[in-house]
Amino acid sequence: MDQKIYLTVIKAISAQKKIDSSSISANSTLEALGISSLDAITIMYEIEDALDIEIPNEALENLNSVQDILDGISQLVQSNA
User: Fold this and answer.
1) CB distance 68 to 9 below 8 Å
2) Tens digits of per-residue pLDDT, 29-55?
3) pTM of the predicted protein model
4) N or C, which terminus of the chain has less Cβ within 10 Å?
5) What torsion, rounded to 10 degrees, do the Cα atoms 58, 62, 66, 69 define?
6) How confident is the model over 2-39, as pLDDT tens digits?
7) How many structural domains are present in the chain?
8) What is the CATH number of the domain that holds 39?
9) DSSP letters of the chain?
10) Cβ contact 66:2 at 8 Å
């Protein structure tokens, strides 16, 4: 996994939910982190800006964990390379 993607995702979640980034791992579920669907949209906008990518709205539908976000963004970045 790309370290830049990992750090960007963790930073975006940490900023949105105002929680310590050290308490977020790839195995964390969005539910456990208190991330609502509205939070997820805001987090994705921040990730899009940071990585200069566009995340399709349908990609947000099946996210359950931080790992799901990481996998989806990694695939998107690789397909755009």
Assistant:
1) no
2) 999 999 998 999 999 999 999 999 998
3) 0.90
4) C
5) -30
6) 899 999 999 999 999 999 999 999 999 999 999 998 99
7) 1
8) 1.10.1200.10
9) --HHHHHHHHHHHHHHHT--GGG--TT-BTTTTT--HHHHHHHHHHHHHHHT----GGGGTT--BHHHHHHHHHHHHHHH-
10) no
Contact 63, 44 (CB under 8 A): no
Please state the φ and ψ torsions of residue 29, each to the nearest 5 degrees: -85, 150
**Parent domain of 64:** 3-80
The gap between the terminal CA atoms of the chain, to the nearest Å, is 15
